[in-house]
Queue: 2 jobs
Job 1
Amino acid sequence: MIFYANSHGMNTNIITIPPQSSISYAMRTQKNKHHGGVLWFTGLSGSGKSTLAQILQKRLFDEGCQVYVLDGDHIRQGLNRDLGFSPHDRSENIRRIGEVAALFADAGIIVLCAFISPYQEDRNRARLAAGDKFHLVHVNASVELCEERDVKGLYRKARLGEIKDFTGISAPYEIPHDAEIVLDTAQHEVEYCSSVLYNYVRTHLFF
Amino acid sequence: MIFYANSHGMNTNIITIPPQSSISYAMRTQKNKHHGGVLWFTGLSGSGKSTLAQILQKRLFDEGCQVYVLDGDHIRQGLNRDLGFSPHDRSENIRRIGEVAALFADAGIIVLCAFISPYQEDRNRARLAAGDKFHLVHVNASVELCEERDVKGLYRKARLGEIKDFTGISAPYEIPHDAEIVLDTAQHEVEYCSSVLYNYVRTHLFF
């Protein structure tokens, strides 16, 4: 740091070196004892994304991790409240979430993002934002099963035409082929899926 | 959690209760031993916002806090790379940063935001997003002093008309009257200003 007085004799407190981050990513991870990361849960509505993210959050928190869940409602009411549901706006919704998630990961946090995110291009962009801190989790359940569950009654509304462009019914879901984890929630219980997730994080993000 | 099998006899693993956050804000603060918060540094270009934010980050990190700095370059290259410098885009830039900062605070983190943010309306919106977790820091230095420092050579360019709508030269800076902290970086050295900031955080955000 360099201090000098200006021509009026006032202390200008100037620091001529542009301020760089005083804390590196490595320092954060050393303190937290785990890497930052984005676990991006993609899958149909009702496939179990949010449920699994919440269970994982609990387990990681109990283990002492810095962990946070980004959920749709939260984001739609805040950061993305200017966005609607046009193709452009849906894509922009996912883009911004991907960028925010990357910031959380840079801060040394394990951030769990549960969004249908049906398009490969949008998911690719989220991966690009977080780089090697990005981990894709495909929560794989068939449309038939999700429709039968229909936890929120959305599939019924989609069938009745009350919701347009509903993923799996009237809009496509592009199955990812680049997922680090695929969870078949039709075949396996929540406990099993949670264990798979936890073990993945433990192996890849813990020191 | 309720599990049941569907009509095909498949385990649907369904949880009928909509997933709420498995970790409360109170649980996070208890673990971190401090509250989450947004410290929003406003002031002219060259007033010392980023410098003070970086010094504060270092001190809080060394004390064991979860702390992160959101800076302009980072955001402009990522989340807000779709935005230019029109009045609308500048306002939207600050709006989004305010929303992201609120998410960090909700995650239990002390987030330091260093942005000129010259308009009261924009700062009000950032305050609204984070609620009582928002703390405004006015880094107060006169245009004359900042121009004399001109660390990045921006004032010179603004005077030459190479940069338009430059805050303090060709665009207004609305002095805040609601700042929780006012730091006069012309009168006080960096060390003093840093101590004021640290003591504020210690008093208001630590347990």
Job 2
Amino acid sequence: MRKVADSTVRRLSLYLRFLDDFEGQGVETVSSEALAQRGGTTSAQVRKDLSFFGSFGKRGLGYYVPELAQRLRQILGLGRRYRVVMIGAGKIGSALVQYRGFTQRGFDIVAIFDNDPAKIGTQWNGLTVLPIDRLEQELKAQQVDMAVLVTPGEAAQSVAERVVGQGVKAILNFAPVQLNVPDDVVVKTVNLALELETLSYALTNR
Amino acid sequence: MRKVADSTVRRLSLYLRFLDDFEGQGVETVSSEALAQRGGTTSAQVRKDLSFFGSFGKRGLGYYVPELAQRLRQILGLGRRYRVVMIGAGKIGSALVQYRGFTQRGFDIVAIFDNDPAKIGTQWNGLTVLPIDRLEQELKAQQVDMAVLVTPGEAAQSVAERVVGQGVKAILNFAPVQLNVPDDVVVKTVNLALELETLSYALTNR
């Protein structure tokens, strides 16, 4: 398969959200124009994005919603389960373990770690918070696909190195730092503070 | 001032986080190398980023932490207050009104809207949830700087057009869609589902 840009994958995800809505409403076909509007792009871009993965749709009829949705789920890797560890049992971590989007997309949190003695041993969604010292041992014992980092900024890089050292290839990072990882590890950072500061920058400097 | 790239502003925000930590620890000076490491970049990039905004630091001595932090806060527009409306009083909205990062960065939520009769009239952090029909009226009455959209995907574009129509120039969007807005409106989208799907894509297609 050709190398597909991150921006393409993000649009596929947006198209799928739209197709899910349509499927729920019983809509059977959708045009590339409608998908384009939802993805903030053009119908030519939609056709190009989908062409990476084969041939879809019929000229003049558009795309068959259940088929395209199913194919996008496959492409996006949503047909299997992923084992996830969460590192950091603070406020954001607490919101995240309850976030249904994880399990809906196949991400199962199998262990939670913290270094705070007050948190270690507490129960979170049926999981006991483990001491961070146990990280390597658990990563070795369980087939872990992804780590969610919810540590303070100053701890994030060293924790990232520890999980990468045990072969984890994907990190969802909520710590307010850029992580340096090898090229074969994929990192997505969600940083609300940073989004707010780019907004206050924009509001102040126009 | 020259047009500054979004990526530069994001790094300034990361540097500031780092400087805040250092200030808390009583550290007085910091090198461009240390800032670079935290920002996932090079010291040359740090110097370039800061050079947009004037002259900082002394050769061989590095940057004076309190001074640079204060200057970055000014640059990022963190010295003033912003009036914010939140549209959508669901689960994410509920987590967001409690998020201290908003007030810490000068963002004050002044009104919350929903279209669900079960939510309208309820109290959220001292604010009464208003019917969405009142949106234009409130935006006219209050000097609103930013809207936080926490609506379902299918409602987001039309709500965005309504707030933009009343002169709001900044949107923080949690709805799982790309918004089409005029060029003078800045939109930041936080979409956890999309981040997860780019991660599952990467895990499946390598």
